[in-house]
Amino acid sequence: DIAYYNNENGAIEENPGNLIATPTGYESQSDEQTVYIRVTDPTSPRECFNIVPVELRVDPLPDIINPERISVCDDETGGSTTNEQATFDLTSKIEEITQGDQTILINFYEDEALENQITDTENFVNTQANPQVVYVEAVDLDTDCTKTTTLTIEVIPEPTIPELDPLVECDPGNNGFAEFDLGTEIENIISNEVDVEISFHETEQEAFF
């Protein structure tokens, strides 16, 4: 016969007050605790028994935080800048999630069941509806305890700019120069876009940077 007790004397004396009635669902009383297993030979005339101590230890889960979402502009991924697909470097969030703790390993998954692991974490292309939720598993390398959180990745569509007609002004000095009010085109440029800012640049390179 096998019985479990939370006290050594209780195990020796078979004290019902120290008996663990549900050993398959026992909740420990502290992060480090010893329970005692009483093994009795029922065939022995004197019911000989032995007491075996078992140490219970509760390790903490990895100390991680929920990361801020990653937002990037739509790029040429997938052959288009209007398909709401882009390339994400998920590893850029590891230090934020772990708060710099080098003893925590981070894995990224596409599914909540943590079955479809993302292997190329530096060049991940979103595969689901935009925005997409990526599932994060944190593993404590010292204890193997795990904790999960989520990371939202978002592709921001490029503003739609219509084809503009050339601006034409007369040349008062007959020298090839004239003054233009570029601001008159802002309404045509914005069209139906909201929350956008307009700036004007003399070269395409300056406009990008």
Can you describe this structure?
With 209 residues, this protein is mostly beta strands. Helix content is 10%, strand content 27%. It has a four-stranded mixed beta sheet with strand order 4-9-8-6, with no helix packed on it. It has a three-stranded antiparallel beta sheet with strand order 1-2-3. A two-stranded antiparallel sheet has the order 5-7. β2 and β3 (49-57) form a beta hairpin. The protein starts with a strand and ends with a helix. 12% of the residues are buried.
Which parts are unreliable, with pLDDT below 50 for 5 consecutive residues or more?
Answer: none
**Overall mean pLDDT:** 91
Rg from alpha-carbon coordinates: 33 Å
By secondary-structure content and strand pairing, the structural class works out as mainly beta
Helix coverage percent:
10-25%
Q: What is the overall number of helices?
A: 4
Beta-strand portion reads 25-35%
**Main sheet specs:** 4 strands, mixed
Widest sheet: strand ordering: 4-9-8-6
Order of helices and strands: EHEEEEHEEEEHH
Cα distance spanning the termini:
78 Å
Q: Categorize the overall geometry.
A: rod-shaped
Number of strands: 9
What attributes characterize this protein structure?
mainly beta; four-stranded mixed sheet; 27% strand
